[in-house]
Design a protein that fits this description.
Layout lengths: L5 E2 L4 E3 L2 E3 L4 E2 L3 E2 L4 E3 L2 E5 L2 E5 L7 H11 L5 E5 L5 H4 L2 H7 L4 E5 L3 H8 L7 E3 L4 E3 L4 E6 L9 E5 L4 E5 L20 H12 L3 H12 L5 E4 L9 H13 L11 E7 L5 H14 L4 E7 L5 H10 L2 E5 L9 H8 L10 E8 L5 H11 L9 E4 L4 H18 L9
Parallel strand pairs: 8-9, 9-10, 10-11, 15-16, 17-18, 17-19, 19-20, 20-21
Antiparallel strand pairs: 1-2, 2-7, 3-6, 4-5, 7-8, 12-13, 13-14, 14-15
The protein binds MU-OXO-diiron.
Length: about 400
């Protein structure tokens, strides 16, 4: 693999590192095409700024590229847009090699700096929206873009060349040494996958960041992973705007609320409960209730349905004192979503002890669901009276989702 720095504009070069072999990133993401840890050097008439570093294991490539573009004593600033180790891994060594350089981080990164780097006495300056640094004939302006993807994240803009250094925003886990969006292979799936797994839980923050970006004319976007976006930056801005604004399902067009009943069933008893609960919920004006057998949903279905649901009810039998795995898998999908206080509830049929509904209820509390009703459990085959109880359970949750006043347990 060549370790060549690449000029990406008159005064900016790519000095990051390629990781073609990585197949899982941050535990939750598959990276079929590997990835890159992008960092850049900006050269001005009065010194240079290094924009981010790389994962520690790739430090050698990073320093090799950096040394092609500047000497260590020319470095006036080291800008860390995001402290996650894939970008801060070479920071301590870089600061040792360039002790005169000022480290610039966001105000929210301060608390993380010491914990992540395990280094004492790290000098730094804080950047907030509007703060600038000068390299003589080059000016870099900072923009606070928190939670994209950690609370510390910021972006910056190089005025003279209209370059947005966007941090993780607009990134893709997609290794391709041809670097630019018009030269690499088709990375559209990786661009969207990255959005869905990294940015989707923080849609409101994406929209706030896009508002900040709007005030700049952008000729090129330099993200922290994957292709550099130079052909039509607005296309990528528009994609993020659409994904952060649009509802996927048509129910929103009719102004109705969506209540989803997810269940697993061994002997059709929890399924019978789910059916009555769904019928009860659906009888409430303004609610569209649907039931889903968890055994037939894949993860992406679960994420999409959870995102669009105003209320979520989860049913599981109790097996060996626990809820079944697909029910836990469903709730684990909340990691990809922002939970704007969805209404929740749990239920299930059981044979001996029946812990599952209470366990799911407790987990949902930690996930910040509003839980207006106690978990509902029924021993073995539900009687008609018990099915009526399920119907009433569905009605109660649906009415609360529609705004019925109630003391709600948070
Ligand atoms: Fe690429 Fe959130 O680090």
């Amino acid at each position: 693999m060549k370790t060549q720095a690449t000029q990406i504009s008159k005064s900016v070069s790519f000095i990051g590192a390629f990781d073609p072999q990585i197949r899982t990133f941050d535990i939750i993401m598959k990276t079929a095409n590997g990835s890159s840890y992008n960092s850049y050097v900006v050269r001005g008439s009065e010194g240079v700024a290094i924009m981010d570093t790389v994962k520690k294991e790739f430090s050698k490539d990073f320093f090799a590229r950096l040394e092609q573009k500047c000497t260590y004593d020319e470095i006036r600033y080291i800008v860390l847009h995001h402290l996650e180790p894939d970008h801060s891994g070479a920071l301590v060594e870089l600061m040792q090699r360039a002790p005169q350089a000022k480290l610039i981080i966001s105000n929210r990164a301060v608390m993380m700096l010491k914990g992540l780097l395990k280094a004492e006495e790290i000098p730094f300056e804080m950047a907030t929206t509007g703060k600038t640094i000068s390299l003589g004939d080059k000016t870099i302006e900072f923009l606070s873009t928190p939670f994209l993807h950690w609370p510390d994240t910021m972006s910056s803009y190089l005025h003279e060349e209209k370059i947005l250094f966007s941090g993780d925003v607009f990134g893709s886990h997609y290794y391709d040494e041809r670097l630019f969006d018009d030269a690499v292979g088709d990375f559209s799936y990786a661009f969207q996958y990255y959005y869905e797994h990294i940015m989707r839980p923080f849609k409101q923050y994406v929209l706030e960041a896009l508002k900040l970006y709007e005030k700049f004319e952008i000729d090129l976007i330099a993200p922290l992973h994957g292709p550099i976006l130079r052909t039509d930056p607005q296309y990528y801005l528009d994609k993020y705007a659409a994904w952060s604004s649009e509802a996927k399902f048509r129910k929103n067009l009719f102004g109705k609320k969506m209540l989803s009943v997810f269940y697993m069933s061994s002997y059709e008893n929890t399924q019978a409960m789910a059916k009555s609960i769904t019928e009860g919920a659906d009888s409430v004006d303004g609610i569209v209730a649907s039931m889903y057998d968890l055994s037939s949903l894949d993860e992406q279905n679960m994420i999409d349905l959870l995102e669009e649901s105003d209320a979520v009810l989860v049913g599981s039998p109790t097996i060996n004192g626990d809820a079944v795995k697909p029910a836990w898998d469903l709730l684990s999908c909340m990691a990809y979503l922002e939970n704007k206080a969805k209404v929740g509830g749990a239920f299930g049929s059981y044979g001996w002890t029946g812990e599952a509904p209470q366990m799911l209820h407790d987990r949902m509390r930690w996930l910040k669901f509003r839980l207006p009703v106690e978990p509902l459990k029924i021993k073995l085959i539900p009687t008609q009276e018990e099915l009526d109880e399920c119907f009433a359970f569905g009605v109660e949750v649906a009415e609360i989702a529609m705004g019925k006043m109630q003391e709600i347990e948070l």
